[in-house]
Specification:
By secondary structure, this protein is an alpha+beta fold. Helices cover 75% and strands 7% of the residues. It has a domain at 427-640: 2-Layer Sandwich (Heat Shock Protein 90). It contains 21 helices and 7 strands. A 5-stranded mixed β-sheet has the order 2-4-5-7-6, covered by helices on one side. The chain is elongated and about 140 Å long.
Length: 642
């Protein structure tokens, strides 16, 4: 047998040794890779963040490399950051389906363990924006509301409420859209001109859509002033929102033929856009301004505005707006009989359209390149995951050989374990038998004392009291006998037994003591388990050896308390104390008391060994021989506390 085991161990180490050495090399390489590239992943994503607006293609290259490293290392946070950046780039180029796909990937990685991160906040808003663009308003509201549930600053919360207002606006629920804006609490002392401008602009847009154009115009002008006060702090997105509101107001003014007000609105917007160096938008304003001027009959001024619009569009290489300006100008020439000017302008319009098509083609190519780059990233991600699976498969094959050899060892160990378990079971059975024997020894003395009480009532010719006592005693005996075979009983049943026992003792010695029983409300009486007949002997000692001999009426206090993860049973009496009680005992009583205490001590030792618990008993003499306090500590689990 020894030779077989020796040969087995040699075979195992010969097979397992190289595998462990290879695994150690792989682990060392992984640790080195993690140490050397962690900073690189963070830097790559930081670089992608910085160039995503101006050079999205370069940003995707950074993300591609960072994602490959994150996937190979199982870096969930940076993987999610990569998908988040791709989603934001897609949102930037209006590829909403791709944006949704990548935002969803980021959300799935962050939602469980990283819901308090900044990236999770950005992901939720990205999903809200995307679903809003896809006209899935319920989902947009869902993700915006999830964002509101996060810990946000006052400004962030206000912006999310504006997002929710926009959802209701696009749904056509203008009352709810306005209510969302009205709920926003903003501290104007902070001086957040952009946020205040956004709030005013959202209200203006709602009022314009509901044809309350005067109030809309007032709010729009206030919003524009706040944006101007913000200077460079006003993002392009907010300028786009201002433009949309302006168009809403202008549409209503033209419907109501309030051309002078529309002209004033456009001139104000032109001044604002020229000051902001937004020449493309200024060109659009001049085109729209020309329409109101023409409607008023101010043809020459309308022509002048269209010429200026074309010049502005040309200065910023915006052939689309230039084409719009020339088309409107040519149409206006034609209506006024200036055929020659109209033909020349149509020619310019045709050339601008050609340039627009060329620019559109370039933009489409750039967009296609971005989408192709994303496909590369997706392919790379799949390859990394596939490579990880193949590596895992190879590792499993190597482990299979190891496990086969280890199985033999396990069989030997299991066999040894069961042999040891059987030995322990036999030992435990013997200890439980001893515990049962000790528990059985408690009952005769308990019954003997009770029968003495009956005998005393009979000797006093108190037949009524004897009958009543026997009736209560029979209930107590039934409870004791029912639980005598149990190792543990619920606290609720123990309370019933103890209460009945103390009631009987008090009935016999009612002129000697009063008693109280209290149970901590935190203790779950139906779940807490404790050994039967563990508390009763100490109560019996308190009554028979302490309170019975007291000249005046004493008090017995029994309490069950939760204390530091355990239950403490405290039996306190103000009897004559242990010292004086010992002086009054006969030799036979001293012998019995010693046997009783030793019995309980042995029970506790066996309980602690068998059930791996820590039952303890502490007996304290109160000051000036004025009684005794017994503290029984019974371990309980956290689940037994209410």
């Amino acid at each position: 047998m020894k030779k077989f085991l020796l040969l087995l161990w040699i075979t195992i180490f010969a097979s397992v040794g190289p595998c462990f050495a290879q695994k150690k090399k792989l682990d060392s390489y992984s640790d080195f890779k993690s140490r050397s590239s962690q900073t690189s992943i963070t830097q790559l994503l930081r670089d992608a963040e910085s160039v995503k607006k101006d050079n999205p293609t370069q940003a995707l290259s950074f993300v591609q490399e960072a994602l490959g490293m994150s996937l190979s290392q199982g870096d969930v946070v940076n993987e999610a950051r990569g998908y988040l950046l791709i989603g934001e780039i897609n949102e930037q180029i209006n590829e909403w389906t791709l944006a949704l796909e990548n935002y969803t990937k980021a959300y799935q990685l962050l939602a469980v363990r990283y819901a308090s991160s900044t990236e999770y906040n950005r992901t939720l808003r990205g999903l809200g924006n995307t679903y809003l663009k896809l006209a899935n308003y319920d989902q947009a509201l869902n993700y915006y509301n999830q964002t509101l549930a996060l810990r946000l600053s006052a400004t962030e919360k206000a912006e999310r409420q504006l997002d929710i207002s926009e959802v209701y606006f696009q749904k056509g629920d203008y009352a709810q859209a306005l209510a969302q804006v009205e709920e926003i609490k903003i501290n104007q002392k902070v001086g957040d001109d952009v946020l205040l401008g956004k709030i005013q602009n959202q209200k203006a847009k709602i009022y314009a859509r509901t044809r309350n154009v005067d109030q809309a115009n007032t709010l729009y002008k206030s919003s524009q002033q706040n944006m101007r006060a913000a200077g460079n702090a006003a993002p392009a997105k907010e300028e786009e929102a201002l433009k949309n509101t302006k168009e809403e107001i202008s549409e209503v003014l033209r419907e109501q033929k309030r051309y002078d007000e529309d002209i004033s609105l456009r001139n104000q917007s032109i001044d604002f856009n020229l000051e902001s160096k937004n020449l493309g938008e200024a060109s659009k304003d001049k085109i729209e301004l020309s329409k109101s001027l023409a409607a008023k009959g101010e043809t020459n001024e309308a022509i002048q505005q269209l010429k200026e619009a074309a010049v502005l569009a040309d200065s910023v290489s915006n052939p689309k707006e230039q084409a719009a300006a020339y088309l409107n100008l040519a149409t206006l020439y034609e209506k006024n009989g200036r055929t020659s000017d109209a033909l020349k302008t149509y020619q310019k319009y045709s050339e601008a359209v050609s340039r627009t098509e060329q620019q559109t083609e370039i933009n489409q190519q750039q967009k296609a390149e971005l989408i192709r780059k994303q496909k590369e990233i997706e392919t790379l991600s799949n390859e990394v995951v596939s490579g990880q699976r193949e590596e895992q498969t190879l590792l499993q094959q190597q482990q299979l050989v190891i496990y086969g050899l280890l199985a033999i060892i396990v069989i030997i160990l299991v066999t040894s374990y069961f042999i040891y378990k059987n030995a322990q079971a036999s030992k435990r059975a013997n200890q439980l038998l001893a515990l049962k024997s000790l528990r059985g020894q408690m009952n005769p003395h308990f019954i003997f004392n009770a029968l003495n009480s009956v005998n005393q009532f009979i000797s006093q010719n108190d037949e009524r009291s004897a009958n009543k006592y026997l009736s209560e005693f029979s209930k107590l005996m039934r409870l004791v006998l029912e639980n005598s075979q149990e190792d543990f009983i619920p606290l609720q049943r123990e309370e019933e037994i103890i209460s009945l026992y103390v009631k009987l003792e008090h009935y016999r010695f009612r002129d000697k003591f009063d008693y109280t029983i209290t149970i901590d409300e935190e203790l779950n009486k139906e779940i807490i388990q404790l050994p039967p007949m563990l508390i009763q002997p100490y109560i019996e000692n308190a009554v028979w050896h302490g309170l019975r001999y007291k000249e005046d009426k004493g008090k017995l206090a029994l309490s069950f308390e939760h204390h530091n993860g355990s239950m403490q049973v405290i039996i306190a009496d103000d009897g004559i104390g242990r010292k004086k009680s010992a002086q009054l005992k006969t030799d036979n009583q001293k012998k019995h008391n010693s046997t009783g205490l030793k019995n309980i001590e042995e029970r506790l030792q066996i309980l602690n060994r068998v059930y791996k618990t820590n039952y303890t008993v502490t007996i304290e003499d109160l000051a000036a021989d004025s009684g005794t306090r017994v503290i029984i500590s019974i371990p309980v689990s956290k689940t037994t506390i209410v």
